[in-house]
Automatic annotation (TrEMBL):
<protein>
    <recommendedName>
        <fullName>Integrase catalytic domain-containing protein</fullName>
    </recommendedName>
</protein>
<feature type="domain" description="Integrase catalytic">
    <location>
        <begin position="1"/>
        <end position="178"/>
    </location>
</feature>
<dbReference type="InterPro" id="IPR036397">
    <property type="entry name" value="RNaseH_sf"/>
</dbReference>
<dbReference type="InterPro" id="IPR012337">
    <property type="entry name" value="RNaseH-like_sf"/>
</dbReference>
<dbReference type="Pfam" id="PF18701">
    <property type="entry name" value="DUF5641"/>
</dbReference>
<dbReference type="InterPro" id="IPR001584">
    <property type="entry name" value="Integrase_cat-core"/>
</dbReference>
<dbReference type="InterPro" id="IPR040676">
    <property type="entry name" value="DUF5641"/>
</dbReference>
Amino acid sequence: MMGPVYVHSGKSATKVKAYVAIFICFSVKACHLELVSDLSTSAFLGAFKRFISRRGVCAKIYSDNGTNFVGAKRELKKLLFDYEKGHSITDLATREGVEWHMIPPGSPHFGGLWESAVKTAKYHFQRMMRSTTLTIEEMTTLLCQIEACLNSRPLTYLSNDITEFSPLTPAHFLVGGPLHVPDETNFKTEIDKYQKKWIQVQRYTNQFWRLWSKSYLTSLQQRTKWKEDGINARIGTIVMIEEPNLHPTQWKLGRIEEVHPGKDGRVRVATVRLANNSMVKRTVTKLCPLPIQKSDEEIDDLGSPGENVQDSQL
């Protein structure tokens, strides 16, 4: 649970607290964001029902041992289970094909995966929103577009064809293909007050995309103190290119066609072929190999110890 965030009804300027339920897939790191009104049991049940209605029933569910979940578990027993028969939340979940696990109390490091997602989303969300308050509909729309941004990050390439530049993303496991946020960068100059609020939501989406995509690429390009020679950039490596002003959910991918080593033999510049067959020259500090492209025997081609899909930051 991330929050609080502040929303209002639209008819009243009074702002109220709300929260965001974050669901993370342990296999492909796909994200699902749900706006909930509070930390009560009924709000949690509503968010969970909306999640499984759109994404399907999970085989296993892991959650922290916060007081809100412990209280929800206690209330769920009263609401959904027959005490006389001694049924528990685990019994019902098992009967429905779901195993529910809770991490030990006072051990947030056991839930590092979702804690990382909360940290990433909350950090950029707070920087972006500051004191702004949206309506419930506007906030829900914004969260859905943020979800599309998070699920658009490339995991690896789809094909070994050298002419194919379509990456595999978490969205492929959700909807069978990439997600796209409508490009609304050319805003109208004359708009009514109702359209103005929705354009503001799109601006927030673009702002979140700029902040998060830059942070995500930086996390894949971390370079620690060198103690031995890394492996140079190699021809044929598929890379993401750090490029400003890209539209939300759009990533610039290319394949290294030529390397330009210096006098010491180290590659610091490479020529990259883009999807439209154009060639661009970039420094290796602007190139990032896809997260799971490295093998166990190799450090990544750009000289930094890259991450695999299990360790990549959301």
